[in-house]
């Protein structure tokens, strides 16, 4: 059974993790520095499939000072393998917007085994904040004052990591998801909205991008 394009659905299995090391510590430190002093911070972690978004989110929560923020993984939200574009807009309306206004937000789980909607989860606004990670996460923060973290990796690294963690269940859907992702990037240019830019090395370590500027085109396809 698949748990979605980033393989970290809390409803279907544990997150896939790579070596964290010094570079990973630097990446987490950059995000923590960006949210320091913000009451009820919102962190959006976006990037292509297999780039390390779930790994970074797990490391961020593990090192968060004080009580950890609420984590919502888009793998739990996508309405199947064609649900990329809709998920971000849906969370902007039902979760990030209301929570940012001090109201209770909500989101609906997707049952990948049944290919059907599942339970509705409710999120109360707290000073500990909110983290949303997954392909298209920046769309969930439309209009929100959020820290936007972009993670990229080479195509070879992404595909190896994505297809190597789900027992072959993702293999038939890789090209379908990539086509959606390329359309999404062409339409929205999400990498240009990033507060922090990171890159995953072939060994899985996540650190700051080597150079500032536009994201290399090959990392978006």
Question: How would you portray this structure in words?
Answer:
This protein is α/β, with parallel strands linked by helices. It has one domain (about 20-220): P-loop containing nucleotide triphosphate hydrolases (Rossmann fold, 3-Layer(aba) Sandwich), CATH 3.40.50. Helices cover about 30% and strands about 20% of the residues. It has helices spanning about 20-35, 55-65, 85-100, 135-140, 155-165, 175-190, and strands at about 40-45, 70-75, 105-110, 115-125, 130-135, 145-150, 195-200, 205-210. Strand 3 (about 105-110) and strand 4 (about 115-125) form a beta hairpin. Helix 1 crosses helix 2. The two termini are about 25 Å apart. Mean pLDDT is about 85; it is low at about 10-25 and about 210-220.
Question: Can you summarize this structure?
Answer:
This protein is an alpha/beta fold. The protein has helices at residues 21-35, 53-63, 84-100, 137-140, 155-163, 174-188, and strands spanning 42-46, 70-73, 105-111, 116-123, 130-133, 147-152, 196-200, 206-208.
H/E series: HEHEHEEEHEHHEE
Q: Biggest sheet, in brief?
A: 6 strands, mixed
Strand content: 15-25%
Question: Counting H and I runs of at least 4 residues, what is the number of helices?
Answer: 6
CATH topology: Rossmann fold
Q: How does CATH name the architecture?
A: 3-Layer(aba) Sandwich
In angstroms, what is the radius of gyration?
16 Å
Q: What's the name of the CATH homologous superfamily?
A: P-loop containing nucleotide triphosphate hydrolases
CATH class: Alpha Beta
Whole-Å distance between the termini? 25 Å
Please bin the fraction of helical residues. 25-40%
Low-confidence stretches: 10-23, 211-221
Name the shape in a single word.
Answer: globular
* Structural class label: alpha/beta
Strand line-up of the largest beta sheet: 2-5-1-6-7-8
- Number of DSSP E strands: 8
């Amino acid at each position: 059974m698949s748990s979605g394009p980033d393989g970290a659905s809390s409803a279907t299995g544990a997150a896939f993790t790579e070596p964290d090391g010094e570079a990973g510590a630097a990446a987490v430190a950059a995000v923590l520095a960006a949210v320091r002093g913000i009451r009820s911070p919102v962190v959006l972690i976006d990037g292509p499939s297999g780039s390390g978004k779930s790994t970074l989110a797990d490391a961020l929560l593990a090192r968060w000072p004080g009580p950890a923020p609420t984590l919502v993984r888009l793998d739990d939200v996508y309405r199947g393998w064609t649900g990329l574009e809709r998920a971000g807009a849906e969370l902007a309306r039902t979760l990030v917007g209301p929570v940012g206004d001090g109201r209770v937000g909500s989101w609906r789980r997707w049952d990948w085994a049944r290919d059907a909607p599942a339970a509705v989860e409710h999120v109360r606004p707290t000073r500990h904040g909110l983290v949303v990670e997954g392909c298209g996460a920046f769309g969930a923060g439309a209009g929100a004052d959020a820290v936007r973290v972009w993670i990229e990796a080479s195509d070879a690294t992404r595909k190896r990591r994505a297809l190597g963690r789900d027992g072959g269940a993702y293999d038939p859907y890789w090209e379908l998801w990539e086509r959606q992702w390329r359309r999404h990037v062409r339409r929205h240019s999400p990498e240009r909205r990033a507060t922090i830019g990171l890159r995953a090395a072939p060994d899985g370590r996540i650190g700051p991008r080597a150079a500032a500027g536009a994201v290399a085109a090959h990392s978006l396809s």
